[in-house]
Queue: 2 jobs
Job 1
Amino acid sequence: MTAPRPLIAGNWKMNGLELALDEARAVAAAVDARPPAARVALCPPATLVHRMAEALGGACVEVGGQDCRAEASGAFTGDIAAEMLADAGATLVILGHSERRAGYGESDALVAAKAQAALRAGLEPIVCVGETLAEREAGRTLSVVAGQVRGSLPAELAGKAFAVAYEPVWAIGTGLTPSLMQIEEVHVAIRGELTGMFGAYGAGVPILYGGSVKPSNAVEILAIPDVGGALVGGASLKAADFLGIVEAA
Ligand code: PEP
């Protein structure tokens, strides 16, 4: 089985007004002019998904959402369905980000239900897992992450396009990153869970690393065996920084 292209996905979080689409256009122009080895995606806030998809129409940069509701429609004020993201032009969706697990009490079971919703809508889920600093210091990293993988990935993902993102909570937005050996150790453990759950198919599922990835550390992180791309927060907001990471893949 040939390895899939690495995926470099930008998570804009709650950042970006219409003017920020200029950054997305700059990314698309560079990617189209010199196609990189990696697939490239940007996940703006929900208000910009449609406008970004239109602005980049036909470009090689994919557009994703940052979360979705498990239900397809209904009385869920303020929420967004996977079908709505797909209708707006998204092809991917980030699920189970630690900011949602911590801020909204999202459980593994809820993340798994959202992953099923993403499949139902034809979206590729990027399912995030990762330990807190307290869990790492207690020596629980591998058991926490393995439990999140098992609980957040529904069996229906077998044979479908999806990715797992390992994002140590303490490395997100802090400028801190685990050592290369620590990243590799967790990715190997996630790979073991994926093959246990999905057999040979699990051997090819991309496992992204996320947490303070920037142009200056991207080359060494992306060279780690079993790192199949990156989920990038802060450094995805500026085209030049994001492109520095894209080019490192
Ligand atoms: C993220 O929020 O998914 C993330 C990885 O953020 P940052 O790159 O800013 O650490």
Job 2
Amino acid sequence: MNLITRRQNKQQETTTVRVGDVIIGGPQLVVVAGPCAIESYEQLLSTALEIQRLGATMLRGGAYKPRTSPYSFRGKREGGLEMLAQIRELTGLPVVTEVMDARDIERVGEVADMFQIGSRNMQNYTLLTEIGKTKHPVLLKRGLAATIEEWIFAAEYIMSEGNDQVVLCERGIRTFETYTRNTVDITAIPALKELTHLPVFLDPSHGTGRWSLVKPVALAGIAAGADGLMIEVHPQPEIALSDGDQSLNFEHFAELMESVGPVAKAVGRELIFA
Ligand code: PEP
Ligand code: MN
């Protein structure tokens, strides 16, 4: 079968995906950063300004949060989207946020420059099909226990509807290991580069579940050819309403950004500000 995602030959360039002024898949490495969940206007604004100052070019933040327990904080939903819209306007940063339900596509799409399809929804074929009918760029996370092939087919669901703006994001998979939240499959990055022409991101925050492991794994991802990183950053991770253990504070994010530049350069990529 001739898959739309399939790399035709070794020489084929990575497809570029444009999100506002940001180009994903080109020589420029793209860092997307922000809180796991939007908690308050001040939290999101202070994070947005800081990550922008440090060289991130896109803001992340969940308004609709898929949580393992229904009793955990599930996001500020509409209120979160409004904050995201205001801060997008104020900073000029393009934003990526998760859409969990096909019924929310229109509303989320009014604010989001890029849709995030979360790990838990990677095989929600109704959602993938409806997202495929939009023109919005999509960050498609790898399912918790998805093979590379299943993940590629998920991208095909979107692309076969006409939306070719898909970025794949490795975020770790379930293995027998319990020390880390997930096991980051670094191999998936070059494997996807061989198999597909799509840009590939790495999310070492969900991949490791531990903030102290985020920087080394992020650097490994860049060395392996990732086109960008998605990093969770919080002004005070110890009081975060979700994923505090894996979130970098501003100081640690600054340290990460300092290290990213030289590694990017070593593999022929660049990072603005670095
Ligand atoms: C997230 O990015 O906050 C998230 C929930 O990610 P994942 O779907 O990879 O678990
Ligand atoms: Mn998270």
